[in-house]
Amino acid sequence: MSAHGMLMRTEQPVGIASYGAYVPRWRIRTEAIAACWGWEGKRVPIRAKSVPGPDEDTATMCIEAAQNALRRVAVAPGQIRAVWVGTESKPYAVKPTATVVAEALGLTPFISAADMEFACKAGSEAMQTAMAYVGSGMAPYALAIGMDTAQSRPGDSLEYTAAAGGAAFLFGRAENALAEVEGSLSFVTDTPDFFRHAHRHYPQHGQRFTGEVAYFYHSLEAARGLLKELGREPKDYRWAVFHQPNPKFVRRLAQQLGFSQEQIEPGFLVPVIGNTYAGSSLLGLAAVLDIAEAGDRILFTSYGSGAGSDALSLVVTPRIGPIRAGAPRVRDYLERKKEIGDYGLYLRLMKKIHRE
Amino acid sequence: MRDVSIIGVGQTPVGEHWDRSLRELGVEAVRSALADAGLERPQALFAGNMLSGVLCNQENLATLLADFAGFPGVEAIKIEAACASGAAVVRAAQWAVASGAHDLVVAVGIEKMTDLGIDGITAGLATAADADYEAAHGISFTALNALLMRLYMERYGYSRADFAPFVVTAHENGVHNPQAMFRETVTVDDFLNSPMVADPISILDSSPVCDGAAAVVLCSSDRARSFTDRPIKILASATATDTIGLGPRKDPLWFEAAYQSAQRAYRQAGLQPEDIDFFELHDAFTIVSAMSLEAAGFAERGQGVRFALECNIHRHGKLPISTQGGLKARGHPVGASGTYQIVEAVNQLRGQGGANQVEDCRLGMTQSIGGMASVAVTHILGL
Amino acid sequence: MELPRYHRLRSAFYRLQATRCGACQAIHFPPRRRCLQCGSENPEEVRLSGRGRVLSVTRVYQPARGFSDAVGTLTALIELQEGIRITAQLTDVEPEEVETGQEVEMVVRRLRGDEEQGLIVYGYKFRPVMKGHGAEGRERA
After folding, report:
1. Considering only CA atoms, which of A291, A332, A327, A333 is closest in space to residue A170?
2. C-beta atoms of A104 and C111 within 8 A
3. Is the CB of C15 less than 8 angstroms away from the CB of A106?
4. Mutating which of B133, B149, B155, B250 best tests the C interface, going by the most C Cβ atoms within 10 A?
């Protein structure tokens, strides 16, 4: 089956009216993880990753990212009619995070709200849904957030990269946008590369199986499908952002699609803070918007285990300069850091150990 | 309204009484006070207490004590004003006698704190603060007092060492009080090396968690001499409050409730600070001692610490405080402390202060403070 | 925390929702019906900016039950931009980095320690103003 005719476009053109990021300030040096598990000397994929502070969780992080988005533009609260939080680290298994966010931002009560789950793609699912709400005329503005405090099994390979952070995107009509959406494409199959049972703390994954058949297959199909339907090529894009499980996968994907290292550089955050799961591709997009100029075209492709990818094509408008000045950039969060080398403290922060 | 006098006092030792329950402590103090007054039973019993419900699962406390003290049937009511409950209960008993409602009333202050761990006790004490805007935020009393101590030190230019006299004096006096929890002296070095609880407040700045009960028997002054040849008159009894939370205060470094309560007491008794021979103040924390001296008019604002540094609070000084160890060394079973202060003041005025006797004392002041100085109860007692 | 109580407190905890006296404009937090300044009883809802400065700070070593994670954390007395004072926990800052007079801003965080069983209590804390947040704050209605 080809992607022909599969392009997704809203009836009314939509775009990103504002955005906001959040990364917690704690970092754990991966050498501390390696030392505990006897991996010294082995090459670790990244030097350090972000960790949530003792009083943080997905809800508190979403609130700050969303507040940053609302700081950048003056939108009356009654105009924001939906908020979706995409995450795989919900504070409650049952009780929406999105309502806490909506209440904290003063957006209740005439609003839709829910949490979404699709592993690392939950944030871009929220984006697709927000676009649809706005583009159909159901809402003047809709907020989509991808955020995680990713949990990983102690001693597992994913412990070196599973990190915390994400971003919020306020979608509105294209005439108010700092980046217009040209179109999107979702590519989803039922692929068992990574999963977590309801009453287990840690996920299981297919190790090398998570590469070719999962991450690469879906990202490539979504991105290529979108490019083809829009009649575009990588050289038409100034920037590209992908889901970032580790540096190697991202570089290889970019290369396979035909994007250069320069094109992915501003959104390439995994070497600095690790894989923020449902926040990963969104945070990368926020970092790109922090430096993009009017006219820049951006290709965004997420990936979530289970599995699937959402690809978006965006073009930046002249509104971006004044708007982005109103809140901290991704870089401001990256530079704000408290690095620890104590694996025990890390375990406590990740609540893998706690007082009974 | 009749004048009221104290005709009997009683107290249990203060300490960690693992093998004595809430009711046993209360009954002991009540019976001891009644015996001191030569009485079998009162007409009413008021119980002052803060935490019996939270820490011992027991409310209806006055009923319980009247029952187990051997006289179920009397009027019995619990009085609560946080850490000032022990003084508030004497105030309530005073109303009962002054108004003519009763002729013989026992007021017992009682607290049993040690059945829970320190985290449960800290949570219990926090019920005296603003539950929604202080306790729910994990803001403990020690933290609130520490905020004041730091602010005070910075505004008036004091160091931690300057607060040592409050602790040294209290412990010196505690040595000679057989009922006191702590019977050993404390040096300035001990104080400076004491571990932090919420800096700058250290363990030695703070009064201890403990159990105890103290009681007084009241009757009208015109009948007092038929019970004892050394009745002590209540010359003043006054309560005042401030905002419950620290945030909304006009000036965080001023104890308005303690000030108003003291002023009302001076007016009732027709006295001035200079007339007072000793002051049982609420030394729960050294900062509270300093600010209490200022609020009661014994030192200018910001000079409470200096007053203590100049040796005025010593047993032979201008204004002895904590004469039997105070909350610091005798102990602070919170809802009972106010009553202990009054019992100790009575003993001083009767000439029964023992080795801690304040020479030639005729007028004593007691002040019990609740919450973050959100309520203060002051009494002036005399011969 | 009890569910109905949390329900009543959430606007104050999440948004620093205060009251302003309709007669004399005095602002009160915690919110209150009857104005402490003039006695009038027609409060308006007002959302505080969350900006302020540290008046005093302490590091806590003995927390209450339910706040076991609070060992080593900071409690502060803060003067808000609106001229009123509040006590609250500080976060995202090391004890040696805090100074009297430091500018702080409100953030929403978990107030208690582990809450596997009960309700997660979210509420206001304060942290040093973050770069990119600018010098101004504004009162939001």
Report:
1. A327
2. no
3. yes
4. B133
With tokens 């406390």, the residue in question is B61
φ/ψ (deg, to 5) at A242: -125, 170
Tens-level pLDDT at each residue, chain C (141 residues): 888 999 999 999 999 999 999 999 999 999 999 999 999 999 999 999 999 999 999 999 887 777 877 677 899 999 999 999 999 999 999 999 999 999 999 999 999 865 667 899 999 999 999 988 755 443 332
Tell me, what DSSP letter sits at residue B383?
Answer: -
Quick one: three-class SS letters along chain C? CCHHHHHHHHHHHHHCEEEEECCCCCEECCCCCCCCCCCCCCEEEEECCCEEEEEEEEEECCCCCCCHHHCCCEEEEEEECCCCEEEEEECCCCHHHCCCCCEEEEEEEECCCCCCCCCCCEEEEEEECCCCCCCCCCCEC
Q: Measure the CA–CA gap between B111 and B101, rounded to whole angstroms.
A: 27
- What span, in angstroms and rounded, lies between the C-alpha atoms of A246 and A43? 13
Longest dimension (CA), chain B: 57
Tens-place pLDDT, residues B315-339: 999 999 999 999 999 999 999 999 9
A60 and C110: CB-CB below 8 Å? yes
Chain B positions touching C121 (Cβ under 8 A) are: 136
Of B122, B64, B90, which Cα lies nearest the Cα of B8? B90
**CB-facing half-sphere around the CA of B229: CA atoms within 13 A:** 1
| Upstream peptide bond of A45 is cis (omega within 30 degrees of 0) | no
Using an 8 Å CB-CB cutoff, list chain A residues near C89: 55
Q: What is the pLDDT of residues A269-305, one digit of tens each?
A: 999 999 999 999 999 999 999 999 999 999 999 999 9
**Residue entry with tokens 């070196």:** A160
Q: Distance of CA C37 to CAs A313, B115, B249, B252, Å?
A: 58, 43, 12, 17
* Three-state secondary structure call for residue B14: coil
Which domains does chain A carry? 14-178+322-349 (3.40.47.10), 181-319 (3.40.47.10)
Q: How many CB atoms lie within 10 A of CB A255?
A: 12
Residue with tokens 């106010």: B338
Question: Is A243 annotated in the active site?
Answer: yes
Half-sphere exposure at residue A313, Cβ-oriented, CA atoms within 13 angstroms:
24
Q: Write the residue in C9, C36, C60 that is nearest to B198 by C-beta.
A: C60
pLDDT digits 0-9 by tens, C30-71: 999 999 999 999 999 999 999 999 999 999 988 777 787 767
Describe chain A by its helix, strand, coil percentages, rounded to 5.
Answer: 40, 25, 35
Predicted model pTM? 0.93
